[in-house]
Amino acid sequence: MSKLTKNILITFFIGVVIFLMDNGATGGFSSKSINELLVNFAVYQLYSFAIGFSNMYFFEYLNKRQWNEGDGIKRILIGFIGSVVVTIGCLFFLNMFTDMYFDGESLSEFLKEESFNRYKFSLWITLTVVAAFHVFYFYKKAQEKKVKESQIVAKNETAKFESLKNQLDPHFLFNSLNVLTSLIGENPNQAEKFTTKLSKVYRYVLEQKDKDLIPLEEELKFAKSYMELLKMRFEDGINFSIPEILSNSDLKIVPLSLQLLLENAVKHNVITSSNPLEINIYEEKGYLVVENNINPKASLEKSTKVGLKNINQRYS
Fold first, then answer.
1. What are the residues whose beta carbons fall under 8 Å from the beta carbon of 153, sequence distance 6 or more?
2. 244 CB contacts (<8 Å, ≥6 apart)?
3. If you ran DSSP here, which 8-state letter would residue 298 be given?
4. Dist CA 86 CA 126 (whole Å)
5. Mean per-residue pLDDT pooled into runs of 10, the chain (316 residues)
6. Residue 155: Cβ within 10 Å count
7. How far apart are CA 315 and CA 295, in angstroms?
8. 240 and which of 39, 151, 181, 279 could share a cystine (Cβ 3.0–4.6 Å)?
9. Inter-axis angle of helices 216-234 and 117-186, nearest 10
């Protein structure tokens, strides 16, 4: 339905309501013939369309103006005062037309008999409709503002989330290269094997880093591959257990979150063959638990503080 059609229907409906109210209150239905009622109805519609469309165009003019955030009261006052002026102007010319055309009065007779009483009822109706329009207008504006604010918040949160995901790629590579650097000096043959396995693991990182959630089963397989990389470096200094079967194959997890936790366990603990790092991953009461023994280092490596903060923010 077009805007013009909608306005015509609204105006026609208002004219019908006013016609029924006025004639019902004054007994006009019983004292007039069908022809008189039809003429009377046509006059009411003439008034309704003239006043209605004049006020609608006035409202459109107000809506096109630029209003500041705190101009709500000003907008209401201008709307009401303008509607009164527009309505009185329309009523004056409509009264003059009907009196001179239907009643045969001259212009001087019309002006002599004109009084404010003829405007009271129409003004009351107009101001009631205008008040309803203002309520609807400000309600609609408030809803539009909420939607706009929600869209802005959503865009900001999406941007933050994408930023967090993008941290994973360089973060993983940086720490893996640190491991590789250490391994080259300790065991060149293992370093070569590590490089080959790292390329396969890193392919997984590239495939999954842009996803919001992935199957837990896939993440556990990746965690196992990552732990095998660490095992190549630390040999008997690290042991791990990862479940082969899950309670529910539909479980999901944030990608690479396990890798960050496993990395933290390695980073903050002393790892030796005599006191190996034991890492266990298992399900318990609907949670995925990552558990390790504690043997803290005397001096910690410089932390980038990405790990746990990244996981918390992504889940938030």
1. none
2. none
3. S
4. 10
5. 78 79 65 73 81 82 78 79 84 82 79 77 74 76 83 70 58 73 80 82 77 89 87 87 90 86 86 92 92 84 67 78
6. 10
7. 29
8. 279
9. 30
Q: Contact 121/22 with Cβ under 8 angstroms?
A: yes
**Quick check: 80 and 130 in contact, CB under 8 A?**
yes
- State the greatest distance between any 2 C-alpha atoms of the chain, in Å, as a whole number: 118
Which contiguous run of DSSP H or E holds residue 225?
Answer: helix 216-234
Give the pair of three-digit tokens for residue 197.
């396995």
Overall size of the chain counted in residues: 316
**CA angle, 78 then 81 then 85, to 5°:** 130
Return the closest-CA partner of residue 93 out of 56, 130, 60, 118: 118
Strand partners, 277: 238
- State the sign of the Cα–Cα–Cα–Cα dihedral 227, 231, 232, 237: positive
Bridge partners, residue 283, by sequence: 288
The DSSP bridge partners found for residue 241 are 280
